[in-house]
Design a protein that fits this description.
single chain; 134 residues; mainly alpha; Four Helix Bundle (Hemerythrin (Met), subunit A); 6 helices; 78% helix; 0% strand; binds fe (ii) ion
């Protein structure tokens, strides 16, 4: 699996590793789609993504809180929104929603995560580092 480009690094070891894993799960979803995924495979990968996003967002929010990051609540809203979207995709797949089944959901997910890590996450880097969180 690929290594994160510099613009996606937050230079906090645990968070960089978790971001990498989130990108990897989405990449697996993209590959599954490209090779003719089954509904079960897509639902399983989206479930993995949802579970791991919960773990990662909690860790990230705990560190932001510990560092006294002022924009924590807005950041938390963005995290909750991502979880809701993934949950909706899983629900749509479960209902056999054809439009969802035929779509490459990974494109939306990759774009969301890239933008989030590159823009929103970069904003907590300085304060975390200043508190010795690396
Ligand atoms: Fe975040």
């Amino acid at each position: 699996m690929g290594k994160l480009a510099a613009e996606y690094l937050v230079h906090v070891k645990v968070l960089d590793e978790q971001h990498q894993r989130l990108f990897d799960i989405i990449e697996e979803l993209r590959e599954a789609n490209a090779t003719g995924k089954t509904r079960e495979v897509a639902a399983k990968l989206l479930g993995d993504l949802c579970d791991y996003a919960h773990v990662h967002f909690k860790e990230e929010e705990d560190l932001m809180k510990k560092a006294g990051y002022a924009a924590l609540s807005a950041h938390r809203v963005a995290h909750r929104d991502f979880i809701s979207r993934v949950e909706k995709m899983i629900a749509d797949l479960g209902r056999g929603h054809d439009a969802t089944l035929g779509m490459d959901l990974s494109a939306f997910l990759t774009e969301w995560l890239q933008k989030h890590v590159r823009i929103a996450d970069q904003q907590y880097v300085e304060i975390l580092h200043s508190r010795g969180i690396k």
